[in-house]
Design brief:
Length: 252
């Protein structure tokens, strides 16, 4: 039994589909109610249910956790996937409110999710918590101070939670995707500009990732196959962090 935030589309929806395909029952949380309900309906009433979840709301987190426990009898998996990344701006042109908004959605929300879900997962005998960070939780990038700050913070939060929750048989890890073909990099978020070809050209593999590939990593961390993995970072980035990439130097 799993709870996924930001599950109405992109990586969260892909994670929900794969977990259900592997036999899990899933609560999909999001603020995109129509999209989230459609994904849940696609997966079937016996396997999935949609719950409105504003990840900055402690009350919404408690309701989503309770929905998982009451609908499916227990909760074993939490995937904290929801996140935002506004268009880049220098720090000197970013307002404190803009910065705080990103921190609230990306960082504080993950804390709220762990706080609400961990006791219920412990009562069920243990399980797995996965926090979705980013390659920008490993290296900085200009113009996205709030995003980078929040994603670095998730690494520390995962490690602290792993130390605190391990004796309750709860594992906590962070994942660090590189560029993935979701709304965050698609034209609708960039005024119609398609940045994906340029991103693909800058990657050692010559492409950006697919949400389904991230879902495979999440499924591994949610399963018993990763039973000895906790407090760790798992990078899925197509070589982004390997070092500066020069396409000319890649020719055989």
């Amino acid at each position: 039994m799993a709870l996924i935030s930001g599950a109405a589309r992109g990586q969260g929806a892909a994670e929900a589909r794969l977990l259900v395909a592997e036999g899990a029952r899933v609560v999909l949380g999001d603020v995109l109610d129509d999209d989230g309900a459609a994904v849940a309906a696609e997966l079937g009433d016996d396997q999935a249910v949609y719950e409105h979840l504003d990840v900055t709301s402690e009350t919404d987190w408690e309701a989503a956790v309770q929905a998982a426990a009451s609908r499916f009898g227990a909760l074993h998996i939490l995937v904290s996937n929801a996140g935002i990344s506004p268009r880049p701006k220098p720090i000197t042109r970013t307002s404190p409110d803009e910065y705080r908004r990103v921190i609230e959605v990306n960082q504080v929300a993950a804390f709220l999710g762990i706080r609400a879900a961990a006791p219920v997962i412990a009562d069920a005998g243990g399980g797995s918590i996965v926090l979705t960070s980013s390659v920008n939780g490993m290296v900085g990038a200009g113009g996205i101070a709030g995003y980078t700050s929040s994603k670095f913070a998730l690494r520390g939060l995962a490690k602290t939670a792993a130390l605190e929750l391990g004796r309750y048989q709860i594992r906590v890890n962070s994942i660090h995707p590189g560029p993935i073909d979701t709304v965050m990099v698609q034209p609708e978020s960039w005024g119609g500009f398609d940045m994906r070809p340029a991103l693909a050209a800058s990657m050692p593999l010559g492409r950006i990732g697919r949400p389904e590939e991230v879902a495979e990593l999440v499924c591994y961390l949610a399963s018993d196959a990763s039973a000895y993995c906790t407090g760790s970072e798992f990078v899925i980035d197509g070589g982004f962090l390997a070092g500066p990439f020069n396409a000319l130097g890649a020719d055989a």
